[in-house]
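$ ./design --mode recover --in tokens.txt
reading tokens...
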């Protein structure tokens, strides 16, 4: 009986998908404004100066890749894959002195799988995103030569936002946050300082559907 119920459910799903004929695919690209979110680190002493590390300003990056979509009634499932170049800045504030901007840049492959609701031309989307880090360059090596922000090549996050479909064009605005604990620390003067700097970004994309 249980097998029969499962077969019926699977058959209904396949029938719905085959009749909907609403699988589409296309390309997308756009810009992002990314930053590194972390708790301020104060009172760092390297023997000559005492300074703080605080979250800096957002920087602009870009992304380009592929988008797909499956639509069943009002439900939209949208897996994507794209190359993303982003980063952020860290402010090194010396007590009684100047502020130096330390840059962090990274490139990665992002794979979001968004689930949303389509209301006319508008969409509301939310879902997880897996990111495979390809490369990283950081001025934080000025503090610790061997420092790496991403201790793992794979990180996880989430995306949520709004979209608009106009004929074969799609426009999306999303916020992306991090779910992975990077958990990195660096050592100055024999003292370890935790720095769980998680990337976050606002994403603006324009896409074109081939089908």
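writing sequence...
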């Amino acid at each position: 009986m249980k097998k029969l119920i499962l077969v019926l459910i699977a058959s209904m799903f396949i029938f719905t998908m085959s009749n909907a004929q609403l699988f589409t695919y296309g390309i997308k690209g756009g810009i992002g404004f990314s930053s590194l979110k972390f708790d301020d680190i104060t009172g760092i002493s390297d023997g000559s100066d005492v300074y703080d590390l605080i979250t800096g300003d957002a920087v602009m990056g870009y992304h380009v890749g592929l988008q797909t979509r499956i639509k069943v009634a009002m439900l939209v499932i949208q897996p994507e894959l794209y190359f993303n170049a982003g980063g952020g800045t860290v402010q090194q504030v010396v007590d009684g002195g100047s502020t130096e901007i330390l840059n962090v840049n990274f490139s990665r492959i992002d794979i979001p799988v968004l689930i949303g609701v389509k209301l006319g031309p508008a969409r509301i989307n939310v879902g997880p995103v897996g990111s495979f880090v390809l490369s990283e360059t950081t001025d934080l090596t000025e503090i610790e030569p061997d420092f790496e922000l991403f201790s793992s090549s794979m990180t996880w996050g989430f995306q949520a936002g709004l979209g608009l479909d106009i004929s074969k064009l799609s426009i999306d605005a999303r916020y992306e946050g991090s779910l992975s604990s990077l958990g990195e620390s660096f050592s100055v003067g024999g003292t370890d300082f935790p720095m769980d700097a998680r990337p976050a970004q606002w994403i603006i994309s324009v896409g074109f559907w081939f089908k």
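exit 0
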